[in-house]
Amino acid sequence: MARKIMFKDAINEAMRLEMERDESVIILGLDVAGAAGTEQARDAWGGVLGVTKGLYPLFPERVIDCPISESAYIGAAVGASACGMRAVGELMFSDFLGVCFDQLYNQAAKFRYMFGGKAVTPVTIRTMIGAGFSAAAQHSQSPYSMFAHVPGLKCIIPSNPYDAKGLLAACIEDDDPCVFFEHKALYTMKGEVPEEHYTIPLGQANVIQEGKDVTIVALARMVQFAEKAAKALAKDGIECTIIDPRTISPLDTDTIFSSVEKTGRLVVVDESYDRCGVAADIAAMVSQNVFDALKAAPQMVTAPFVPTPFAANLEAAYLPDARKIEAAVRKTMGVSNAVKMQAAAN
Amino acid sequence: MKAQLSKENLLKAYRKMREIREFEDRVHVEFAKGTLPGFVHLYSGEEAVAVGICEHLNDLDRIASTHRGHGHCIAKGVELEGMMAEIYGKKTGTCGGKGGSMHIADLDKGMMGANGIVGAGPPLIAGAALASKLRKDGSVGVVFFGDGASNQGTNFESMNMAVTLDLPMIFVLENNGYAESTSPKYSAKVGSDNIADRARGFGMPAVTVDGNDFFAVYEAAAEAINRARKGGGPTFIECKTMRYFGHFEGDAQTYRPKDEVKNARINDCPLKRFAAAVTSAGLVEATELEAIDKAVLDQVEKAVKAAEAAPQPDLDALMADVYVSY
Ligand SMILES: Cc1ncc(C[n+]2csc(CCOP(=O)(O)OP(=O)(O)O)c2C)c(N)n1
Ligand SMILES: [Mg+2]
User: Fold this and answer.
1) Which end of chain B has fewer surrounding CB within 10 Å, N or C?
2) pLDDT at A343 over 70
3) Counts for chain A of helices (H) and strands (E), in that order
4) Pairing mode, strands A240-244 and A214-218
């Protein structure tokens, strides 16, 4: 059995291995080492939750603490990457995207196309997502659909330590701009992670389990909730397939479509919003492409269309959970259940 | 300056500073018990800045705050009970439990919110000051921001806007020596130790004061705010101060010298310095200050008890107030 490590350590390890392999890999962020300008030892923080801890002592010139100027340092990560570096820019919370968005949205994303295919911008932006910590409206969001809406950006959303390491390595080695979303509730999740370097191709979904009745597509932390719901449903004889797309741009539609062709039912679970979001996107593509296979309307389990509330009871009501997923699955099963019950009654 | 403040004003200023200190010290204790949700950033040690500025303001004047916002709230007159309940995420909180520590706001008091986004305040207050200017009601806008936030583009752009549009706006830089673990010696090199020097480059008056000296802050604020009220445009006030706790509650603070806070608490505490100044000048009796200390202790205790006993928000609050109409 491979060694078990935490999600955040898997991310750290991916960066360390990439920095060992390639001298052009640099890290830019806030307090990614820490204690800059003080008389105390550097590496005092290693990022706000310690994800980059230990990298500064190994690569003191390549782990670069920046002023709180996201436009400038995320933009500099883009610019440096367009000039031969492979920069990893850490945007502490994805909620701060508003401060630096132009450098990704109009710059990094569009260079290659606008410049007639001549530009290569292998930048990676790492950033935190996720609610569940009473961190309120400006530190809890999962706004990846805003990035996935932009042609030219790749969006990566790992759900476990193994994927986190392999996908981040793939992002750093990839020649396009990648935005890598880390759910803060997963940081302490443990899982088997090989010590050696490996990558996971971007755009390849992970089929977590197969079942004949319903296809559940779930992202990041929602994968765990989907697994829990599937267990409960299995007791009632409802068998679920769970697909973790792992990347939403590119999106592995083949895997999703062929699963729905078998099950005829789709439930998409996303911690972000239903409106103009990933869940709506996947539901629409399935409806358009495998409509004939559908036995029920696709269901979305998402956060309601409101900012993340602070109070714990409101936040719990806001978040998707296993119970809500179960209800959505049962809804898609409604018709055949009624038929089954009728058959039993006869 | 001391003599120009009435005894009543002196006691009021001291009370506000004591309310901030007691409130924050108590939140620190409660947070350590693990009962408080979310992220909390405390203002202990920086009291003279918020109070020295806000003593010149009325409810029409607007302030924008930071992630470290409790002190600004209290100085601007927000009620302690509502604030404590907000930090506990309760229905009776200033924002109904939907904002929490990082988003406490009381618009009736001209307090436009603590803020989770570093550097979000300056543009908002440029707007508040523009509204003041157009309304011609003599009100001003004050933005509080940190040494770290001083590096945010929004801050530079707002300084230029304020000068361009001649806005009644005060930039109050709280230079407490750290942005998380990073020193402004690294991230805000301005040729001197004074970040205020940048503001002069934009063409506005700028001063650097001892932010642990209430009277120094009060005096600088008097000049700046009077000028702004009379149409004289923006001013930048840098206040050198110190935070007594970690960046957030739970920060191990290995980036700080061992005795930095201990020494500051002994030799440079804004409340102690205020008390020494007013009692030695014979303006206030020590017993009067002690009476305030005791009253505030009770006030904070009451706020905690009320917050603990208050109900959680009703579940239908989840969907309410996203829009005015939709
Ligand atoms: C746009 C943005 N970037 C980064 C952060 C994370 N952050 C919160 S407070 C802080 C440090 C702020 O330092 P300073 O402005 O000096 O204020 P202080 O904490 O010292 O009061 C950082 C980096 C944030 N909340 N928003
Ligand atoms: Mg600071």
Assistant:
1) C
2) no
3) 12, 14
4) parallel
- Cα–Cα distance measured from residue B154 to residue B325, given in angstroms and rounded to the nearest whole number: 30
**Could you tell me how many CB contacts below 8 A there are between chain A and chain B?**
154
A153 neighbors A108 (Cβ within 8 angstroms): yes
Residue A166 in contact with residue A199, Cβ under 8 Å?
Answer: yes
Enclosing domain of residue A68? 4-192
Q: Partners of B236 in the beta sheet? A: B171, B206
Average pLDDT over residues B29-56: 96
CA distance A255 to A65: 41
Q: Angle at Cα A286 formed by Cα A285 and Cα A291, nearest 5°?
A: 120
| Phi, psi at A299, each rounded to 5° | -115, 145
Helices (H), chain A: 7-21, 55-58, 70-81, 97-102, 111-114, 144-148, 161-173, 222-235, 253-263, 278-289, 312-318, 322-345
A43: closest CA of chain B, how far (Å): 9
The amino acid at A93: F
Mean pLDDT for chain A overall: 96
Residue closest to A22 by CA, chosen among A78, A51, A62, A80 = A62
Residues in chain B: 326
Subunit contact A99:B119, Cβ cutoff 8 A: yes
Last residue of a domain, one of A192, A227, A252: A192
pLDDT-derived band at A110 (thresholds 50, 70, 90) equals very high
Place of tokens 């957030």: B248
Which residue ranges have their beta carbon within 6 Å of ligand 1? A 30, 68, 70, 92, 96, 99; B 66-68, 116-119, 146-149, 174, 176, 178-180, 247
Q: How far is CA B326 from the centre of its chain?
A: 35
Q: How many domains does chain B have?
A: 1
Domain shared by A157 and A27, yes or no: yes
B192: pLDDT strictly greater than 90: no
What phi and psi, each to the nearest 5 degrees, are found at residue B165? -95, 5
Average pLDDT over residues A262-289: 98
Task: For chain A, give the number of residues.
Answer: 346
Instruction: Kindly state whether residues A21 and A142 are assigned to the same domain.
Output: yes
Closest CA relative to residue B290, chosen from B310, B271, B318: B271
What does the pLDDT read at residue B35? 86
CA-based nearest residue to A58, from A21, A19, A10? A19
User: Is pLDDT of B97 > 80?
Assistant: yes
Within a domain: A199: no
Asked if B180 lies within 8 A of A39 by C-beta distance, the reply is no
The pLDDT score that the predictor gives to residue B180 is: 98
DSSP letter at B179 equals B
ipTM above 0.85, yes or no: yes
pLDDT tens for A290-327 read 999 999 999 999 999 999 999 999 999 999 999 999 99
Fill in the DSSP letter of residue A40. Answer: S
Q: What is the pLDDT of residue A2?
A: 82
User: Which amino acid, one-letter code, is at A80?
Assistant: A
> Quick one: A58 and A165 in the same domain?
yes
Claim to verify: residue A32 and residue A135 sit in the same structural domain: yes
HSE, CB side, 13 Å, CA atoms: give it for residue B263.
5
Report which of A27, A80, A19, A77 is spatially closest to residue A52, judged by C-alpha positions. A27
Q: What is the C-alpha to C-alpha distance for residues A30 and A232, in angstroms, rounded to an integer?
A: 43
Clarify whether A149 is annotated catalytic: no
The CATH number given to whatever domain includes residue A331 is 3.40.50.920
Task: Give the number of other CB atoms < 10 A from CB of residue B35.
Answer: 9
